[in-house]
Amino acid sequence: MLTKRIIPCLDIKNGRTVKGVNFLDLKDAGDPVELAKKYSDEGADELVFLDISATEEDRKTLIDLVRKVGETINIPFTVGGGISSVNDVEILLKNGADKVSINSSAVKNPQLINDLASAFGSQCIVVAIDAKQINGNWKVHLVGGKIATEIDLFDWAKEVENRGAGEILFTSMDNDGTKNGFANEALAKLSQTINIPIIASGGAGTIQHFTDAFLVGNADAALAASVFHFQEISIQDLKKELKNNNIQIRL
């Protein structure tokens, strides 16, 4: 059995880490470089850095900030936000990123997934999918959740896999920031639909929620933000409890 992963997420806006609820009401959560170092030191398995306003503001990712974070940590580092070309990815990888996450740009131009996987290898390409339930069906949303589409979550996940993505980061917009738990039914269905690793995102509030994401949702990794940023859960306590539940985890 593959080791499960715990991944803190830094949502970046105006150079600061922010966190909201259901993608709204963003609050300041601290300096991204300091938080990144803290999580790396505390035993996080990976770190995700999402420049959440890059697409909306039609600009590229904050390269200087990416470089500073990359120099500070010694764990795998995924960067997303404003990526729309092979050249964008090349620049990020040269400045400290180990993987990149694409979202809206992949929906608008699915061939981008093929091109990036071909240029850099599937292991380097994460496709982030933000989705919420509309009339009982999970629909993909773009531009930080602001634009709804008619695209079905599970159909899109399968296409993403077929085009060469190495991993999917699925955020339930319904669960995001609520601290009521991950969208485990959708996660379990995703894990039956695709064969690449799934990172669960949106809804972490307790250690039990992480346990459920792995045992019920069958996720390969669990990503969270506010419970780590505001010190409600420590990564070491979380990992010890997961180990006690016979979940394979790196302590």
Automatic annotation (TrEMBL):
Family annotation (Pfam families): His_biosynth
InterPro entries: Aldolase_TIM, His_biosynth, HisF, IGPS_HisA/HisF, RibuloseP-bd_barrel
Keyword Amino-acid biosynthesis: yes
Presence of keyword Lyase: yes
CC terms in the record's Gene Ontology section: cytoplasm
GO molecular function ontology, one term from the record: lyase activity
Catalyzed reactions: 5-[(5-phospho-1-deoxy-D-ribulos-1-ylimino)methylamino]-1-(5-phospho-beta-D-ribosyl)imidazole-4-carboxamide + L-glutamine = D-erythro-1-(imidazol-4-yl)glycerol 3-phosphate + 5-amino-1-(5-phospho-beta-D-ribosyl)imidazole-4-carboxamide + L-glutamate + H(+)
Location of the active site: 11, 130
Subcellular location as annotated: Cytoplasm
Family: Belongs to the HisA/HisF family.
Role this protein plays: IGPS catalyzes the conversion of PRFAR and glutamine to IGP, AICAR and glutamate. The HisF subunit catalyzes the cyclization activity that produces IGP and AICAR from PRFAR using the ammonia provided by the HisH subunit.
Subunit description: Heterodimer of HisH and HisF.
Name of the protein this chain belongs to: Imidazole glycerol phosphate synthase subunit HisF
Organism: Flavobacterium swingsii
